[in-house]
Specification:
The protein has 234 residues and is an alpha+beta fold. The protein contains four helices and seven strands; from the N terminus they run ααβββααββββ. 35% of the residues lie in helices and 16% in strands. Strand 6 and strand 7 form a beta hairpin. The longest helix is centred in the first third of the chain and has 27 residues, at 6-32.
């Protein structure tokens, strides 16, 4: 197998950034269009988002999967089947646009507050702040490992009064999202068992690029949120 040259690497990085930009455009369309509202079901909002995605991408995209989860569904592990649910007047709604991207190359998720509940609003604000702090730690330490960055995110979450909603806080671009409680390849995730530097050459000779995945939950109240985006590219 030929080792990718600098132009190959640059083109791949540009593609990852462009896919994230398009995901941001989809999310912006969802918010600007007021597509998330109390009384709508998750499946109804899901269908509306797929319509927006089709307009942004200009063609059929991704694979058929649910993009929306709300209320108690926000704390369920990914991959868990769940019934449809009506969004409440004070609620949290996770918009996970991962299914838009075939091959798991990138991912993007944000959490929307419905209503004025201060606890839910604080969770969304804290997720963004934890994401910024995690990226700053990554950029500030050349040899940082998956274990070290995971520990940083866990500490930041605890300091803010939240629990982590998953055993890992990120994954290698091109690696399928983790499902369940164990990881068959720790080196492919930003988790407690990954002692390898995140800046490294991955399979096929490609530079490793990472998705940051922050999931915070309020265990007592039974709600949570998700914040996903590229870690090392902007």
């Amino acid at each position: 197998m030929a080792v990718p040259d600098r132009m190959d690497e640059r083109l791949r990085a540009l593609r990852l950034v462009e896919e994230q930009r398009m995901a941001q455009a989809v999310f912006a369309g969802v918010i600007e269009g007021g597509l998330i509202s109390p009384g709508s079901t998750e499946c109804e909002v899901d269908d509306r988002i797929w319509d927006v995605a089709g307009e942004v991408f200009g063609t059929a995209v991704g694979w058929p999967d649910r993009l929306v989860r709300s209320g108690p569904h926000t704390v369920l592990p990914y991959g868990r089947c769940r019934p449809d649910r009506v969004i409440g007047v004070d609620d949290l709604v996770v918009i996970d646009l991962g299914p838009l991207f075939a091959g798991h190359e990138t991912d993007f998720a944000r959490t929307v507050v419905v209503g004025d509940d201060p606890g839910r609003r604080r969770l969304v604000e804290d997720m963004a702040q934890v994401g910024v702090a995690a990226r700053e730690r990554f950029l500030g330490q050349d040899g940082i490992t998956g274990r070290q960055l995971h520990a940083e995110v866990r500490a930041l979450a605890g300091k803010a009064g939240w629990s982590l909603g998953a055993w890992q806080v990120g994954r290698l671009c091109g690696q399928a999202p983790a499902v369940g409680g164990s990881d068959p390849e720790p080196r492919s995730f930003i988790g407690p068992d990954n002692d390898e530097p995140l800046r490294r050459t991955a399979a096929g000779g490609w530079r490793a690029h990472w998705i940051l995945e922050i999931r915070l939950v309020d265990e007592r109240s039974g709600f949570g949120g998700a914040f996903k985006q590229l870690l090392d590219l902007v």
